[in-house]
Amino acid sequence: MRVEDIRNHFRNELAAERFTTDRNGGKTIELIGASFIADEPAIFGTVNEEYVKAEIDWYESMSTNVNDIGEKVPEAWKRTANKHGEINSNYGYLIFSPKFYAQYANAWLELKHNPDSRRAIMIYTRPSIWDEYNENGKNDFICTNAVSYYIRDGKLHAVVQMRSNDVVFGYKNDRAWAVHVQNMMINDLSQTLQPGDIHWQVQNLHVYSRHFHLVDPKYASSKT
Predict the structure, then answer these.
(1) Residue 170 and residue 44 in contact, taking contact as beta carbons nearer than 8 Å
(2) Cβ distance 140 to 81 under 8 Å?
(3) Contact, 181 vs 198, CB < 8 A?
(4) b/e per residue 127-151 (b: at least 16 CB within 10 A)
(5) What is the pLDDT of residues 126-173, one digit of tens each?
(6) On the CB side of 6, how many CA atoms lie within 13 Å of its CA?
(7) What are the backbone angles phi and psi of residue 191, rounded to the nearest 5°?
(8) Active site includes 166?
(9) Less Cβ around it within 10 Å: N or C end of the chain?
């Protein structure tokens, strides 16, 4: 499956009005156990390149405070943070920091010494998230579980495994980060590697009702 197949799934679900309810009582359309090649930068909507750059810069800074993202902090991050702006999900912190075992460096070393390896994995979440996701008023249960890397046929492929992914904002920004890390790994391996496929595997891929108009403008207009 590719992005266009995912688009068609959500269009069909919306047309059939097969909804689930999120924790706030709103309607969603979803796909459980999604698995596809992330061959397009967006499923619905367009990428905000300025914001993507700001978020990647923030990830690389390894700051766990959302107020360091920039002048305009997205509402989703504000809702995730505690009253001080602290969160768990700075992805750069999770893969670069010695606190979490310098996973990027370990994956790089694994691929450098054994290009055929199946162990080049960066684990983003952790068992302690059950205690940490809501500490001091946070609401941040890390969405990415792990990302694995494979060198095959002269290409570096990635498999992104996610607990939960919002089709509109989440996919676009998370894919941009995945591409960024993939390219970084290629450069650091100092080989004649090319970027391979990014396999996107999500336990729950979903669209919130506020974005139904992006899935099908005709449906949205018929309900107003």
Answers:
(1) no
(2) yes
(3) no
(4) eebeeebeeeebebbbbbbebbbbb
(5) 999 999 999 999 999 999 999 999 999 999 999 999 999 999 999 999
(6) 30
(7) -120, 175
(8) no
(9) C
